[in-house]
Amino acid sequence: MTFEDSLARLETIVAELDGDEVALERALALFEEGIAHLRAATTELGRLEDKVKVLTEQADATFALEELDG
Questions:
Q1: Average pLDDT per run of 10 along the chain, which is 70 residues long?
Q2: What is the DSSP letter of 20?
Q3: 6, 35 in Cβ contact below 8 A?
Q4: What is this structure's pTM?
Q5: Distances in Å between the alpha carbon of 18 and those of 37, 42, 52, 61?
């Protein structure tokens, strides 16, 4: 599941939990599912942040990876 898929499912879960007619068992199941999607999205975001690097050519024509600021 992609980051976007997890985020979309989280939005759906929140919308359902905001409803007036959610039974306690259903709310708990949605909450547990939401936590799983949140963890997956957080992990994927961290993985993607690690990939956000810039190749910069050094004076000796070698390349180094540098993290982007911000």
A1: 93 95 96 97 87 54 63
A2: S
A3: no
A4: 0.69
A5: 18, 23, 35, 57
